[in-house]
Amino acid sequence: MSISPFSARPAPSGGDGSGIGQRRARLALLIATIGIAATLLAYAISPGVRHAVSHATHSVKHAVGNVLDHDAAKRAHRPVPVPPKSTVRPPARSGASGSQTLGTLTLTSQQTTTAAP
Predict the structure, then answer these.
(1) Are the C-beta atoms of 98 and 108 separated by less than 8 Å?
(2) pLDDT (0 to 100) of residue 57
(3) Is 26 among the domain residues?
(4) What pTM did the predictor assign?
(5) Over 29-45, what HEC string results?
(6) Would residue 48 count as lying in a domain?
(7) Contact between 82 and 88 (Cβ < 8 Å)
(8) How far is CA 13 from CA 9, 10, 61, 109, in A?
(9) Is residue 103 part of a domain?
(10) Which domain covers residue 44, as residue numbers?
(11) What is the DSSP string of 78-110?
């Protein structure tokens, strides 16, 4: 006994052999047509969809350009200039009291204790 809810055998064709196949083909064509029409309608109505499509178009153009660019190998071997190291030093910490000045804001780390009654 099969546990599948669907029959594995082909559907009976009745009298002629092309009746079921022709109906399935028409149904598949109808579903594809409705899907394409819905996609075009969403593209026409929604600016968000148009924006996403423009981003996808740009991305595909960039990827195709990278594949077809024969000079990319020559550009890849050029050394990239290294920026000079920064000479700015961080501000020095002040004292052992645990306070640190950040611009005009002073942060302190003090522990508070409560007296027992």
Answers:
(1) yes
(2) 93
(3) yes
(4) 0.36
(5) HHHHHHHHHHHHHHHHH
(6) yes
(7) no
(8) 12, 8, 49, 85
(9) no
(10) 19-68
(11) SPPPPPPPP-PPPPPP--SSS-EEETTEEE---
